[in-house]
Amino acid sequence: MPGARGTQILLERERELALIDQTLDAAAEGRGSTMLVRGPAGIGKSELLSAASLRAAGRGFETLRARGGEFERSFAFGIARQLFAAHLEDADQRAALLQGAAGLAGPALFVEEAGTDDGAAVSMGDPAAPIQHGLHWLVANLAEGAPLLIAVDDVQWADLESARWLVYLARRMTDLPVLLLTAIRDGEPALGADVISALEEESGSHALRPEPLSQVATVDLVRFELGAGADEEFCAAAHRAAGGNPLYLRELIAAARDADLAPVAESATKLEDLRPEGISRSVLVRIARLGAEASATAQVVAILGDGTSLQRVARLSGLEPDEVAVTAEGLVRAGILAGAETLDFAHPLIRSAVYGEIAPGKRAVMHSRAAQLLVADEASAVGSEQGSNWGSKLSESEDSEGDPEPPVQAQSNLSRTASPGLWSRWSPVRVRSLTPHWRPRSGGASSEGRSGGAEPGSSL
C-alpha cells in the first residue's frame, strides 16, 4: 500500500544515527561534545536533527532548538533567545536559572532584572564576553536538572553574536552533560567561514556528511510512496533525476502523484520534465542569493546543456571568463552545479527549474544565439569555410520577427547547410538541447540533397 503523503522515513542513515546515539550516551554520562551535520540543501540535515531530538527525549534529555534565518542575521543573540525563551517565561524559573554568573546573559535575553556583581570584573575587552560567559552558565544551570541537547539548524544563517557564543560554548562543555548539534548548509554566502571552521576544529567535535541515497534506497522510497509495484525503470529514472537527494526525490514523487503519473516504465521519460514547485522555489532562491552573475551563468548552462565550457558560457552570457569561473565556483558550493570547469548541473531537476524560469521569448533568442556560437565553433574545428554561411542562416532565423520558435528555424537552416563532417561531431543530446522543439522531417537529410550525412537527432 502506498505511503501516506507527508510520511517521513530515514533511509541509509544508520551510520549517522549510530554516532548520534553514541554522543547522546556520552553526554548523559557528563561528557559533552559538539557535532556538525554538513551538506547541500535537501540532503537530510534537518531530518537528522529531528531524529536526534526524538532519541534524546527517549533518554530523558531536555532539548533546546533554534534555527537560523536568512533575514534575521542582524538580530544579535537571536539564536540564543530562541533556545532559552521557553525557559524564561515563568518568573520563578527565570530567577533560578539566572542566578550567579548566568545573570550576565540578561541583556542578550531582554531580561532586565538579571544581573551580577561579577559583570565589572569581566566586562573589559570584547563587550560580548560577559554575555557569552553568562549564557555558558545558563546552559550549566539548565543541565543540572537534566542532560541537554542543543540543536541549531541552518547555522550558516545564524547571527554572528550567537555563532561566536556557540564556539565559546563548544570549548567549555566537555565536562557538562550537553550535546551541541548543529546543521550547516554548504555553499551559502552567509556566516563567516572562520566561525564554522572554529566549530569544526574544536577537540571532541564530530562531523557528519550524509551521502546521497543509493539507487536501492530510491527504489525503496518510490515503492513506499507510490506502491510496491512501481516499475524498476521508473525507479531508476527517479534516481537519475533526483541524484540521490532525499528532498528532491520526495518532491519528485509528490509531483508525479499530483500529475497522475503512473509508476510504470512508459512514464520514466516524463519524470525529468516535471518541475516540482518545492524544488524550483528552493533552487531559484539559492541562485538569487548568489547575485545576477549566478543567475545569468545558470541560465546559459541550462541553454547550452551539461558539459559546456567556461569560455562558451562567458561568450553567451556577456560575462568575463574570470567572472564566470568565480561564479561557477559559488554555484558548485551551493549545490547547483556539479563541476566548475566543465559545467554540469548537480541534478536534472535543477536544470529543469532554471530552464523553466527563463521567459519563452528570451529562451528562444538564447537558443538561437547558442546555435550560432556552437556552429561557429564546430566550423572552426573542421576547418570548413561554410561557417559564415551557417552563421548568416542562423542570424536570419534569430532576426525573423513573428517566428514563434526561432530555434526550429535555426535547426532547419543548419540541417540544410551543414556538412557531413560537422554532423558527425554533434551528439543528438547537444542538438536537442539547443533546439528542443525540432523534430526530423520524413526523408531525413537525403531529402535536402545530402547523402551520407547523419540526421539531427539520429546517431550523430
Biggest sheet architecture: 5 strands, parallel
Helix content: 40-55%
Q: What structural class do helix, strand and pairing data support? A: alpha/beta
Put simply, the count of helices is 21
Count of beta strands: 8
CATH topology description of the largest domain? Rossmann fold
Mean pLDDT over the full residue set? 80
Q: Which word captures the global form?
A: globular
Q: Would you kindly provide a written description of the structure presented here, covering whatever features stand out?
A:
With 460 residues, the chain is α/β, with parallel strands linked by helices. The protein folds into four domains: 15-208, P-loop containing nucleotide triphosphate hydrolases (Rossmann fold, 3-Layer(aba) Sandwich), CATH 3.40.50; 215-274, no CATH class; 279-357, Orthogonal Bundle (Arc Repressor Mutant, subunit A), CATH 1.10.10; 360-448. The protein is built from 21 helices and eight strands. Helix 7 links the parallel strand 3 and strand 4. It is globular and about 75 Å long. The two termini are 45 Å apart.
